Amino acid sequence: MRGAILNEATPLRDLAPEIRLDELEGKIAHATEGLLGYRKADGHFCFELEADATIPAEYVLMRHFRGEPIDHELERKIAVYLRRIQGEHNGWPLFHGGAFDMSASVKAYFALKMIGDDIDAPHMEKARDAILAHGGAAKSNVFTRILLALYGQVPWKAVPTMPVEIILLPKWFPFHLDKVSYWARTVMVPLFVLMLKKPLAKNKLGIGIPELFTTPAFEVKTWTFGGAHQKWYWKKFFIGLDKVLKVAVPFFPKGPQERAIKKIVEFVDERLNGEDGLGAIFPAMVNALEMYDVLGVPPNDPRVVIARASIEKLLVVKEHEAYCQPCLSPIWDTSLASHALLEAGNDEADKAARVALDWLKPHQILDVKGDWAEARPDVRPGGWAFQYANAHYPDVDDTAVVVMGMDRIKARAPDTDYEAAIERAREWIHGLQSKNGGWGAFDADNQYYYLNEIPFADHGALLDPPTADVSARCVSMLAQLGETVENSDPLKRGVEYLIKDQEADGSWFGRWGVNYIYGTWSSLCALNAAGVDHQSAPIRKAVQWLLAIQNPDGGWGEDCDSYKLEYRGYEPAPSIASQTAWALLALQAAGENDHPAVAKGIAWLAATQQKDGLWPEEYYTGGGFPRVFYLRYHGYAKFFPLWAMARYRNLKKGNSRHVAFGM
């Protein structure tokens, strides 16, 4: 299934033939029509956002944990979905076509058994055999073990100790909530209460999964902690510390404990975020709801009612199957779709982009100083979030993409009123720059790498440090707004960060998209916008890398396994529409629109376009947490290929090699 790599021995004539511009014009119009068909009534876009089996499985288990009435029809549809995505290895992967994953498999099996699947059914028997062959459910990660402990399937000694008093620690302490990422913060805070109170799931059906353990869970003498990324000496230290805490915590005084719970509830209450939920992400939302339950908050309390409603909004219910999304992506989808429409450039597309950008404008967060202000207290708010609402957690990536769209449309729609929004966002982006010149997604200078060594961080994703892809977006935005390396210190330091962060092979790591193709696209767009010479060494190396990894059919593809620890580099995959578009947009930004490889890539997109004008894409090309959590953005194959094809046409017709925009 791996795609072949285009190298010097692969003649370009073996690739797909070049497409004529008049034929491409029709393809672009068809793709534009297809994309516009997904507009919401008010003009914004919000496509499905799919993760792995863990989210729908946890949704089912959440309902049974609380003892909610069983929705048999909904559960039947979720079961259909879970059975469909079971891998050829008989377990469940983290992404389409991926390897067996223990935690995803244990949760999916547990959910299917809870729904009513017979454990002797062929798919369940195969799943059970695969789980046992990989060491059994005891090999699950920390978050899965916590779920199993809440269901009484493993003892609490199987879980690292995280006292609620953590919330009371001073900022100078090595572990403080301000030192972890926003997603870790919102997930952990309500979880501390659950880990203290240790409630037992109501589980009215009495379903358990003892058959998934090679040794009965309550007979396991030693539970090991730690992820593959963690160093042995840190593991040894923290395992010893955990043993001490397990003995000491029951004797902690009740006064500080009660103060900690009060502070936790205040934290959650302040950030509950209406029907968009705590942090607007599924795990935090579930933990908040269950925290209220365990603290005895009545089910008719407005906080409980709205916390429960926020989770329901994540469901995708279709005719034959259903699943739960990890979050919603309207700001991201709408802003990126706007760029593709502006590139397409016909009257209807321009009008739709204007309506979409008008929809985005009031979603700018101007009145809430979120958690990011702990590191930057003197900076005024001015960003956009990823979701419909998430006032405490805007991100610089969405903000930069929105601003570039607003700035770009001004030339076509002089009656726009975006200037104040753009300048406020510029101020916020300046303020969120980290000391090393880069940008993280949600916080500045979130680089406490030692925290990824604690047992709770076996996923290795506790932090939000600066990354090339996010930094590139900020550089692109600042440069598009007219800043230069000569007159702007933030831009100068951002460009220096990107050049320093380039990999030896010429690519850039992609934190939020898979992976090196995404990072390289982002970075080449930024360097072009910042005026870096296309003949400079960093850009030439990146171009040669992209040309070297083109597939023989003309497209590009990269497997999620490129994130694996033992090999930090590109992993080939069959050609994928969104990744092909990224590679093309990257080469175009580097001045290579006339290169034969670009023509072949455009031809591949044209040849694989479907009857609806769009592209199929089962593969996951979005990043959640490398090696732990991946995303399939259903919108990516709907707007990125259109964007790349329209840019190819525009540069050809304009007889220019220069991309004039930040993206």
UniProtKB/TrEMBL annotation:
Pfam families: SQHop_cyclase_C, SQHop_cyclase_N. Residues 328-650 form the Squalene cyclase C-terminal domain. The keyword Isomerase applies. The keyword Isomerase applies. Gene3D superfamilies: 1.50.10.20. InterPro entries: Hopene-cyclase, SQ_cyclase_C, SQ_cyclase_N, Squalene_cyclase, Terpene_synthase_CS, Terpenoid_cyclase/PrenylTrfase. Its EC number is 5.4.99.17. One of its GO terms (molecular function) is squalene-hopene cyclase activity. Keywords: Isomerase, Repeat. Pathway: Secondary metabolite biosynthesis; hopanoid biosynthesis. Residues 28-319 form the Squalene cyclase N-terminal domain. Belongs to the terpene cyclase/mutase family. This is Squalene--hopene cyclase. It comes from Flaviflagellibacter deserti.
